[in-house]
Amino acid sequence: MNSVSDKDRGLFAKFQNALDYELKNNKALQIHSNPAYYKQTKEYQAFIGHCKNLGDNALILLFNIISSNDHFIYREAINDLCYDRYGHILQEIVDDYVNSGQYTSDGKFAGFSHENTIMKFAKRILHEKF
């Protein structure tokens, strides 16, 4: 986080707050579970546009969000920003899950979920980039 300037963090927070407000208050939007509807909002478009302008610094900020915010739109934003460059990592994570089964080495159940997969994806990207 220290590598991201205060100005960039502040602008990112501004766009995130606008998107969060829309997510919480747009009743017509809330009836949908398809991310495509959320991505059509002007708030999401402004947010993702700002993230693209920030480049890799946006990844740091987005990864921080998904550790505390459970709205799926932020996981979708990570996909939108990262898939072209890092899709191979995501595929490796899925392949590993499929090949190793649903249990950890000590026998605990490790359910496959989009949230867990994106967290692993984020950690791998951070490890590679930073």
How many separate domains? 1
Radius of gyration: 16 Å
Counting DSSP H or I runs of 4 or more residues, the number of helices is 7
Overall average pLDDT = 84
Are there runs of 5+ residues with pLDDT below 50, and where? none
Shape: globular
Provide the β-strand percentage band: under 5%
The biggest sheet amounts to: none
Termini gap? 11 Å
Structural class, by secondary structure, is: mainly alpha
Count of strand segments = 0
Order of helices and strands: HHHHHHH
Share in helix:
over 70%
Descriptive overview:
Helix content is 75%, strand content 0%. It has 130 residues and is mainly alpha-helical. It has one domain.
List the helices and strands and how they pair.
Layout: H1 6-25, H2 27-30, H3 35-39, H4 42-54, H5 56-66, H6 72-100, H7 114-129
List keywords for this structure.
130 residues, globular, 7 helices, mainly alpha
Produce a short descriptive summary:
By secondary structure, the protein is mainly alpha-helical. It is built from 7 helices and no strands.
